[in-house]
Task: structure prediction
Amino acid sequence: MSDPQSSPSNREVQELTDLARRFSESGRHEEAADLLLLALRLDPKNLSVKLGLAEVRKRQQQFQGGRSRSLRDLLREGHRRNAIDAAHFLGLAHLYADKGENVRAIDCIEVAKAKDLANPANHKLHARLLFRRRDFDGAAEEFGRALRYNPFDRETAENLGRAEYERKQFEAALGATVHAFLLLNDGDEEGVRRLRRRIQTLKQILGWGNRELSRLFRERQEMVHTAFDRLEWHRERFLEQGGLPGANLSLTAPPSSRREAGGQIELAARLRRLKPLAHFSDEQIFRLTQAVREEIHDVGNLVYAHRSQGRDLYVLERGEVSLQRTTTYGTFTLGVVDSGELFGEGGFLTAHERNSDALAATASQVFRLESGVMDNLVEASPEMGVQVYWTLWHSLARKLRATNDQLKTFFSDESLPESFLRLRKQPTGAAASVKVEPSDKIRLFREQGLSRRELMTLATFSKEKRFAAGAYLFQEGDEGSEMYVVLEGRVVISKFIPGAGEEALAVLERGDFFGEMSLIDGEPRSADAKAHGGPLTVLALDQGTVREILAMDPHAALEFLQLLCRLVAGRLREIDEKVIGWRIMSGERNESVSA
Result:
């Protein structure tokens, strides 16, 4: 009979225990605990392994100062260990490469990549080995990744140019060579001559003139400058937040000419302080500076005029801007923009003519966001587009709610007692269950000119509800969490105006949206909604479903937010027209002079 101590399981347990002991003695308590847990799975009744595990955990607790580490500390320790392992594997890869053992070197590099995903050194060495094996496609791909991770590595840029040349991708080779040329030190005359000859050769191969070459130089120069400015922006943010002891002594400032000429860092810092942009990442704020143009307006200056064309968006940094409409009965104020708020959203979203004058009520400093650049930023990064349209959605919602609140003051100075609102409130109609085929939903939404993605999203996530004639879907003051689309029948949106009674704001028919405010802020309903003239069938979309949509693919979330922004912008435009009409009918006069 064989000795039980010599069985494979017991030998493995002993080997794991010995290795765990060595790890623990060197201070690597977590690894030791993992090994002992593995040994315990092989031999659950092994008392010595249990005692060893208890001892290791005791040492681990002492090492951590007698308290459990936070998830952040654990993640940081994991990243630290991975970075150290990656550096060791990269060093070993260099040793194998120097010996000509390329296969082993590449194996080590793959492990290093897995443990440190964004280290350009891993990709740079891999590219050199692939180039040596004349795998120019692979070399170009790896050099390209290394340059993306470190756009200031001249050697990598030059080697990428060589790899692209070997692949006969001459335009890409010229771009990389120009990139390397821009990174040359001032005193490197030999490098200047070498790269200049290569640039001239590639220019001739491509049949380019000076105009094409100048354009390429400008593009690459802007790319390098943007990368530099972004890092300088992060450096200043780091130092503003405390940084590391002595960090301001070890980091040198960029050339003064770049700071004075660009101003991008200072502009990004100013944008960061604006409340509507607080949820943007630093990277997104920095990209947003590409669209920003600064304007200063004295008192009485027009930022834009009523009925003018234009899609540019505006953010007021300092001052006050009045949104107003001039009529034959006087000039009426539709709203006031305070510091840190957006305006001009309707034009940006719908491309319709401006709905009002935007007049500087005090000396004002304005950021104008060029619509063409904004469109390009959104198209290039759906994630950034989601942030932009989320901001527009909430800005429009605040204005729409403020405009609705104005209605209470038009016909009477007396406010309605809350007790009266409770007395006039009627029971909300119970929604009956009704089945609507998906094809009917899609046909309805197609009538509204929605995109295919919007069609599928709304048809998939909306729920059908049916109300009897005269039934209230909701009343002013009710809590709300749903938006509705009319499928069959009509709905009247109304508001009780003190001194005037019930005032119909709109009668909505098939395809019209309403109740969208509750998807934005979840605040009480600002008006009544009632089935008008017969039974009503609607499709309902609630806040929980919207959150699911926004958590989906950013392309889908962006299209959905664009849809909601168009709805709110359209509703705000309608209510503004109502406000002007009611003010005129109420006899209100405003003698302020129009600019």
The chain is about 55% helix and 15% strand. Residues 118-241 form a domain with the Serine Threonine Protein Phosphatase 5, Tetratricopeptide repeat fold (CATH 1.25.40.10). The chain has a mean pLDDT of 79. The CA atoms of residues 230 and 283 lie 8 Å apart.
